[in-house]
Amino acid sequence: MKKLRIALVGCGGMGRFHIDYFYKHEPRIEFVAACDILPERTQAVVDGSFPGAKQYADYRELLKDPDVDAIDICTPNYLHSEIAVAAFAAGKHVFCEKPDAIDAAKAAAMRDAAAKAGKVLMVMRNNRFTDAAKYLKKYVADGRAGEIYAGRCGWQRRRGIPGKGGWFTTKAQSGGGPLIDLGVHMIDLAVWLMGNPRPVAVSGQTFRKFAEGSDVSDSEHSQFGDAVAGGTFDVEDLAMGFIRFDNGAVLQIEFSWASNVGKERRFVELLGTKAGVVVDNSQMKIFTEENGELLDLVPPGEQKDDGHARNLKNFVDVVLDGAEPCYKPQQGVDMIAILEGFYKSAAEGREVRL
Ligand SMILES: NC(=O)c1ccc[n+]([C@@H]2O[C@H](COP(=O)([O-])OP(=O)(O)OC[C@H]3O[C@@H](n4cnc5c(N)ncnc54)[C@H](O)[C@@H]3O)[C@@H](O)[C@H]2O)c1
To answer: Is residue 185 domain-shared with residue 258, that is, in the same domain?
Structure first.
């Protein structure tokens, strides 16, 4: 059996998640090394999951290791591009957590370095891999929803600021707040389901109302990132806006880490001339009309999410077997350009052409 020798860079919350949900169960993976600036984290990976794996504190040293075919980047956002570009120069394949990068130029540098090296770059798009998303992608592509002309998407959290005061809430390290953290998931899902129309303009506003804390712990539903008491919080906690596409379609967006809504919800709702298609917390719904009756189509049981593991499996299939990648690096550049345009719009109080 062909095997992919992989190393994990960044052994925090998401890195450990990749290990538990994928690497431990995938026979075509040989987990050869763990890298983190905190030695106790690489030690925990070795002790807990992969005895015998090598440990590195500096990713540049790891990249010299000839036993490594591919790396999986699970570091803070601002390091994604730098580490990926260095990995391609060293002849490695790269899987990277979302968001692709903290600005479009850095995402483009990753795309270009991958092309130059002739290696695979894939950035996590786990929401494309849920049962609901896979079904609806085919439903829309087959024309059963008709023309998709408008929609809305979002991820609204009532309370759930990741790593408050740490890198997540520091613009220079994260690139932004919930728009880049959560928007990259659901805007990508919406645009992908719509058939990848080209975004041409964006307008939006951002708010920061929970930086000083609330009586209820404002991070209670967030398991990611390490909080730092008295640390930096210079990103938004709510982003609301509007995207226009070259085919005339539009998308309303809303992303919050903390806002006084009823409960957490992540969703895409697209309006087609024949049907409306909805992903609601990874469950699918279709609203249509047949034989003169309005009809709601809802699967009988829970649909599986499992998107992270399936996305990582796609990476292994692409590298080892030349399978079709779910993600094209240009889509990452386009996605980050939307977010960059949004932040510009919020700062300047006007619609921004892309
Ligand atoms: N797809 C998803 O659903 C999802 C969910 C959460 C987080 N993420 C993404 O995963 C990434 C990591 O997030 P997290 O929640 O695990 O953060 P985290 O802070 O828990 O982990 C980051 C790790 O990177 C390490 N690190 C920092 N600088 C490093 C360097 N130079 N070299 C090696 N390691 C370094 C840190 O010590 C830490 O252990 C982020 O990009 C985040 O957006 C994705």
So the answer is: yes
- Nearest one of 154, 151, 150, 174 to 162, comparing CA atoms: 174
Decide the pairing of beta strands 250-256 and 148-156: parallel
Same domain, 102 and 139: no
Q: Is any ligand 1 atom within 6 A of the Cβ of residue 307?
A: no
If asked whether residues 226 and 161 sit together in one domain, one would say yes
Estimate to the nearest angstrom the gap between the alpha carbon of 103 and the chain centroid.
Answer: 14
In percent, the amount of the chain with pLDDT more than 70 equals 99
For a pocket test of ligand 1, which of 14, 38, 96, 123 has the largest count of ligand atoms closer than 8 A to its C-beta? Answer: 14
Q: How many CB atoms lie within 10 A of CB 220?
A: 11
- Whether the bond between 51 and the residue before it is cis, its omega within 30 degrees of 0, is no
132 lines ligand 1 (CB under 6 A): no
| Residue 201 and residue 243 in one domain | yes
pTM for the model stands at: 0.97
Find out whether the beta carbon of 231 lies less than 6 Å from any atom of ligand 1: no
**Burial of residue 324, with CB atoms counted within 10 A of its CB: 0-12 exposed, 13-18 middle, 19 or more buried:** exposed
Residue 291: exposure state from Cβ atoms within 10 A (0-12, 13-18, ≥19): exposed
- Ligand 1 contact, 97 CB (< 6 A): yes
Does ligand 1 come within 6 angstroms of the Cβ of 155? no
The residue type of 320 is: L
Q: Is the CB of 59 under 6 A from ligand 1?
A: yes
Pocket test for ligand 1, best of 8, 36, 311 (most atoms within 8 A of CB): 36
Residue 305's closest CA among 280, 341, 271? Answer: 280
Residues 105-144 have pLDDT tens digits of 999 999 999 999 999 999 999 999 999 999 999 999 999 9
* Segment 37-87, tens digit of pLDDT: 999 999 999 999 999 999 999 999 999 999 999 999 999 999 999 999 999
Record the tokens describing residue 115, joined without a space. 């092309």
What is the edge-to-edge ordering of all strands in the sheet holding 29-35? 54-56, 29-35, 4-9, 70-73, 93-96, 121-123
Q: Is residue 317 part of a domain?
A: yes
